[in-house]
Structure formats: C-alpha cells, structure tokens
Design a protein that fits this description.
Layout (H helix, E strand, L loop, with lengths): L1 H6 L4 E9 L3 E8 L5 E2 L6 E2 L3 E14 L2 E13 L6 E3 L13 H13 L2 H8 L3 H17 L11 E9 L3 E8 L4 E7 L8
Parallel strand pairs: 2-6
Antiparallel strand pairs: 1-2, 3-4, 5-6, 6-7, 8-9, 9-10
Helix pairs in contact: 2-4, 3-4
C-alpha cells in the first residue's frame, strides 16, 4: 500500500516487485479484479466484456536514485456501442504506454529550465524522446486552453521562435488558472533587411 500511494496508480494494485538493483526497480501492477474497463471509444466503464490483457512496461518518476519501471497489465475490452475491441484507457499512463503522466510532467518541468539534451542526459534518455514527450504535453495544454476566453486578472505574454526565417509564436497565459488563453503565429515580414 505504501508503494501504491507513492506511485499514485489509481484503480491498480502492486502485485510484486520483479527485480531491484542499485540503478532500477521493476514493479508489476494489475487492475483490481472488480474494477471495470475504461473504454477509450465511448468513454464509459464496462463491467463485462473483458477480452484479453497484455503487459506493457512504462517508466515512472524516480524513487530516490532508482529508476522505476512499471509492468502494467493492460486489459482489452469489448465495446457494446460499436462491437469492437479496444485497449483500456488508463488515466495515469501515456497514450503509447512507455511513460507515466507523472514522468512526462517531470520531463516538462525539466525542459522548461534546461535544454532537451541536458534533460535527456539527466534522465538517461535520448533527447529525441524528451522532445516528443515535451511536444505531447504542450499539445495537450493547447487543447485545454479556455474557449471562450474568460476575463483574466493576471496574464503573461511570451514570444518564442517557432520555425526558421523569423517565425514567432505568441502565447498569452492566464497566470491564475495556469492555462494558455490565446496564441497566434506572427506573420513573416519579408521587408526585414
């Protein structure tokens, strides 16, 4: 229960510690037997229609100096809405199941203060993997922006280079809600000398 609460894996339980050394720990987690399967198609929880399961390995946030790898038993469920079989959607696991959302948020915090290459060196990952994870989080934040834009009391405006040839993306952020409320790409000015 202590490991489960440290990992923050809701609706799942720790069944065993597969292996542990001075660098990493591998933990097997499984869903509770009576918990329903969360369907990504209809967004409902199905109590019946579990088809099969597979084990995926996902890296989680570190516990001290240990890299944590979760061996997640992921179920496949039958959706009665369209009669197809879907992989269960897990709230704390990324879409492609290689990393947990907590780990992705940690990467996002690191890339905010350092480069992708240095973040990759610190975490022991390729900087291309870091870039993809950071991009996915930024895309999710873009989708969560507030529409229609509410009246904000405190805002922050930031302009970042987006592509070559002096293309810039302007972001306006509501600092109270911590969400992007507006952004736009500045047009290219070909009259620059």
């Amino acid at each position: 229960y202590t490991i489960k609460s440290l990992l923050g894996i809701e609706k799942y339980k720790v069944t065993k510690i597969i292996s542990r050394d001075e660098v990493e720990i591998h933990i097997q987690v499984e869903p509770y037997k009576r918990s329903g399967c969360h369907c990504p198609n209809c967004k409902e929880i199905h109590k019946k229609g579990k088809h099969s399961s597979q084990t995926v390995v996902a890296e989680d946030k570190r516990l001290g100096d240990l890299r944590v790898y979760l061996h997640v038993v992921k179920r496949k469920c039958y959706c009665p809405k369209d009669g197809r079989i879907y992989n269960e959607e897990i709230s704390w696991l990324n879409k492609w199941s290689r990393f947990t959302t907590r780990f992705s948020k940690e990467v996002n915090r690191l890339t905010a203060i350092t480069t992708n290459q240095e973040a990759g060196w610190f975490l022991g990952l390729n900087d291309e993997v870091i870039y993809c994870m950071d991009k996915e989080i930024l895309e999710n934040l873009f989708e969560e922006r507030l529409i229609p834009t509410p009246a904000s009391l405190n805002i922050s405006v930031d302009e970042v280079a987006w592509k070559k040839r002096h293309r810039y993306l302007t972001n306006v952020i509501d600092t109270d809600e911590k969400v992007v409320i507006w952004n736009a790409i500045a047009p290219i000015n070909h009259n620059l000398t």
